[in-house]
Every structure is written in structure tokens, then in C-alpha cells.
Design brief:
mainly alpha, rod-shaped, THOC7 protein, coiled coil, nucleus, THOC7/Mft1
């Protein structure tokens, strides 16, 4: 007492990606049995041609599946390469950020020193220079 959804689900599970391979193989087995039981030579030849046709369909489907499989492998390698490139870019960005932080700290130190020098220079300029003092 299977419902139609369960039957369809089961067929898809058996069939894989839905390319009809299980149906083709069943047809091939049936054609082979008919060919074995064929009475006349004409009937046997037509059955033989049907088997060849079904076989070529199966081979084509298998070749297509292999090509898709190879393409998926290459795509995975490509994604791994992209992933590594992104990781390297992130690491380089982190290095650049830490370098920039060091430069900012150094620039702040220089600015602080300059401000102190300017403050000292203003204090010094308020007093007369050595030549004036000696007079």
C-alpha cells in the first residue's frame, strides 16, 4: 500500500539523478529476453538493434555522468584554490592592519614630542637669549 509520492521517491532514489538509467537497464534485460526467445531471424535482428540502441543510450548517459563528475572535481579544486587565495588575502590584510597600527602609534609619539617641543620653545622664547642676559 504505497502512496504515489512514496513510489516516486523510491524511483528517484533508485534512478539517482533522474536520468532514467534503471528504466534503460530494465528495457535492455527485457530486450535480451525477447531476443533469446525470438522465433524468426527478422524479429531477432530488430530485437538486436533495439538492444544496441539501448546500450548506446546507457553508454552516453554514463559518459555524461563521468564528464559531470570530472567537472565537479575540477570545480572543487577551483573552489579550494579560491578559498586559499582568500585566506592568504585575509592574512595579508591582518598583517597590513597591524603594521598600520604600529605606524599610528609611532605618528602619535612623534606628534606628542612635537607638541612638547613647541611648548618648551614658547617658554624659552619668553626669556631673553644668552647674549642679552650676558649684557
Amino acid at each position: 500500500s504505497f502512496s504515489s509520492d512514496e513510489v516516486i521517491r523510491k524511483r528517484l532514489l533508485i534512478d539517482g539523478d533522474g536520468a532514467g538509467d534503471d528504466r534503460r537497464i530494465n528495457l535492455l534485460v527485457k530486450s535480451f529476453i525477447k531476443w533469446c526467445n525470438s522465433g524468426s531471424q527478422e524479429e531477432g535482428y530488430s530485437q538486436y538493434q533495439r538492444m544496441l540502441s539501448t546500450l548506446s543510450q546507457c553508454e552516453f548517459s554514463m559518459g555524461k555522468t563521468l564528464l559531470v563528475y570530472d567537472m565537479n572535481l575540477r570545480e572543487m579544486e577551483n573552489y579550494e584554490k579560491i578559498y586559499k587565495d582568500i585566506e592568504n588575502s585575509i592574512a595579508a590584510a591582518h598583517e597590513k592592519i597591524s603594521e598600520c597600527k604600529k605606524q599610528i602609534l609611532q605618528a602619535k609619539r612623534i606628534r606628542k614630542n612635537r607638541q612638547e617641543y613647541d611648548a618648551l620653545a614658547k617658554v624659552i622664547q619668553q626669556h631673553p637669549d644668552r647674549h642679552e642676559t650676558l649684557k
